[in-house]
Amino acid sequence: MGGDLLRRKNLKLMRNVKKKRLFIKCRIFFLVFCVSVFTANADERPLRSAAPNSQSGVSDYSPNVNLSAFNFDGCALLTKSALENPLTMRYIAYYSSPAGIAYLNTVLERGNIYMPFIREEIEKRNLPLELLYLPVIESGFQITAKSKSGAVGLWQFMMNSISPFGIKVNDYIDERRDFVKSTKGALQKLEDNYKVLGNWELAIAAYNCGLGQITRTIQKTKISDFWELAQKKEIRQETEQYVPKLIAITYILSQPRRFGINVWHKPFEWVAILLKRQVSLDILAEEAGIERDLLRRLNAELLHGITMQDNSRQLIVPVVHYENVSRVLEREDLKLLRFSYHTVSKGDTLWGISRLYGTSLDLIEQYNPGISNRYLRIGETVVIPSLN
After folding, report:
1. Catalytic: which of 121, 130, 138, 238?
2. Where do the H-state alpha helices sit in the chain?
3. What pTM did the predictor assign?
4. Which positions of the chain have pLDDT values less than 70?
5. Is 121 a catalytic residue?
6. What pLDDT does 40 receive?
7. Percentage of residues in the chain with pLDDT exceeding 70?
8. Which CATH number, 3.20.20.70, 3.30.70.270, 2.40.50.140, 3.10.350.10, labels domain 339-385?
9. Rounded to 5 degrees, what angle do the CA atoms 283, 289, 291 make?
10. Is residue 290 a contact partner of residue 279, using CB atoms and an 8 Å limit?
């Protein structure tokens, strides 16, 4: 009887072990399944979006599309078939909704100081005018915009794509935020894409995902039509939506009164001034009566808000303030940089002083000729240019 009891206990123990093993196997299978699903969809998640979430609240809104009343003359992208595409219609519905129109009005107000120059460059190169609105979906016309992947500026240039366009980035300047240089670079890039691909939809898609990616996809599929590639899911989801989004925005903004877009922005004009000395944008704005934020937005490539000593850069100022700025710059008695003065104490180094004041070694050496760690003397005064 004792033997039977022992066998029953052993059988019960074995059944419990089997149950635990089965439970563990199920959990492992479930985790593997979840990971595989997440990995499979990872490349389909949009990298960035300058607009509010346009994936929800769209299907119930009827787009205001009347193609019979639209003039297609001179349009490279706004074709009947492109506008009738379901994804384009979806974005027309979103951007013509009250929330979409409010967003577009905000973006256009930000872009008002840049758009005249962009339009001028587009017309000079004889490119499609629809490209004027590409920064709407790239950056929302925020000159200092930076994506999670590191793209910067109105046109969202990555570091690995700037060299052909003479765009410089260092500790003091980031010319991806220079609206003049970045606009010229972006339009050149788009024009180059078009010369290779021979199609504007594909050229714009290549701006989003890379010319190499599009050309490889065409070679693999033998399909050279953007809409067919999108329909067959041969291009990534972000790029698939990128072109229809631009077409939808252009369709709405080309008919501003019909959709309630604010077109009553005052024309903005600016002029470039060649500097003869180093200046702080904040001090110049204060002395010349310019709105500080406006001056910084016009010269956003100056990371610390001060110009360089070599005077190789031109400063962009509003035309209406040109005379005031000129008078301020001519005043030799007026200091246009802020300085601090540091008294050297035991243990000080130039690097430590630069970190203490939040400035750079180059600037300290620039304003203290001949200075070096080796010759720092206790009690000596070091001039520190302020970057803020």
Report:
1. 138
2. 2-41, 80-83, 86-95, 98-111, 115-125, 134-138, 179-197, 200-209, 211-221, 226-231, 237-253, 256-259, 281-288, 292-298, 322-330, 350-357, 361-367
3. 0.77
4. 1-74, 310-312, 387-388
5. no
6. 34
7. 80
8. 3.10.350.10
9. 80
10. no
